[in-house]
């Protein structure tokens, strides 16, 4: 085996380990989210920790930001490795990778949403309970960033059903609605102002975090409806 072929084999082995590289980040994120549940607003540790609870919550938000950055670095590293495949003119691999990795990372950062709008950061905010219901339009604002998680499907304007998130533009839709939308040969994201014009089923994934928010909102709306009914009954009793 020639030196070039041997180098290509090593590079391909490293590329195939992309999933393994990210597993550590995902495990770290999952553990942090579990910790966040115990520190959520109204959680069992809130009274015990007192004023310190806000410091712990902020530390978990910062950890979520770090996890996002690490995942982007992995993506940049793998993208750089792919550039070296079948390039016999490259002799100084370490120098090439170091220089090009920074360029790839810069491109990823420029084309991505803000870190505080990334999935992992929003997950953390959800687990910490950094949400507040907006009764007027069925939306939840995620505190700690400039992101707003809408619980309305952008196509129907109604509460999301079986939410699916777009991995490219990060917008969320009702599953059956967006699938029909795509099958009718619509290839532009239906969210107003979105520049994603290559919408496809392959871009979609189930959004379990938003599904949880929808479930909470449905419970809140049901409780609100029950309370309104009870108030009406009480009012009628008073009239009698």
From TrEMBL:
Pfam families: zf-Nse (PF11789). One of its GO terms (cellular component) is Smc5-Smc6 complex. The keyword Transferase applies. It is found in: Nucleus. Residues 136-228 form the SP-RING-type domain. Pathway: Protein modification; protein sumoylation. GO terms for biological process: double-strand break repair via homologous recombination; protein sumoylation. Gene3D superfamilies: Zinc/RING finger domain, C3HC4 (zinc finger). Residues 204-239 form a coiled coil. PROSITE patterns: ZF_SP_RING (PS51044). Keywords: Coiled coil, Metal-binding, Nucleus, Transferase, Ubl conjugation pathway, Zinc, Zinc-finger. GO terms for molecular function: SUMO ligase activity; zinc ion binding. CDD domains: SPL-RING_NSE2. Belongs to the NSE2 family. PANTHER family: E3 SUMO-PROTEIN LIGASE NSE2. This is SP-RING-type domain-containing protein.
């Amino acid at each position: 085996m020639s030196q070039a072929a041997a180098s290509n084999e090593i590079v391909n082995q490293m590329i195939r380990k992309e999933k393994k590289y990210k597993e550590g980040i995902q495990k770290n994120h999952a553990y942090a989210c579990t910790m966040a549940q115990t520190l959520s607003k109204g959680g069992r540790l809130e009274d015990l920790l007192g004023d310190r609870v806000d410091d712990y919550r902020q530390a978990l938000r910062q950890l979520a930001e770090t996890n996002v950055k690490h995942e982007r670095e992995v993506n940049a590293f793998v993208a750089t490795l792919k550039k070296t495949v079948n390039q016999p003119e490259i002799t100084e691999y370490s120098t090439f990778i170091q220089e090009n990795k920074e360029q790839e990372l810069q491109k990823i950062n420029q084309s991505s949403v803000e870190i505080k709008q990334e999935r992992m950061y929003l997950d953390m905010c959800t687990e910490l309970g950094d949400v507040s219901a907006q009764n007027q339009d069925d939306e939840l604002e995620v505190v700690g960033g400039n992101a707003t998680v809408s619980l309305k499907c952008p196509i129907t304007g109604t509460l999301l059903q079986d939410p699916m998130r777009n991995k490219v533009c990060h917008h969320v839709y009702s599953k059956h609605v967006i699938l029909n939308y795509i099958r009718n040969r619509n290839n532009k994201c239906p969210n107003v102002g979105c520049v994603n014009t290559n919408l496809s089923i392959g871009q979609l994934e189930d959004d379990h975090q938003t599904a949880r928010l929808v479930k909470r909102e449905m419970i809140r709306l049901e409780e609100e409806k029950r309370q309104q009914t009870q108030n009406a009954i009480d009012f009628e009793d008073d009239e009698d």
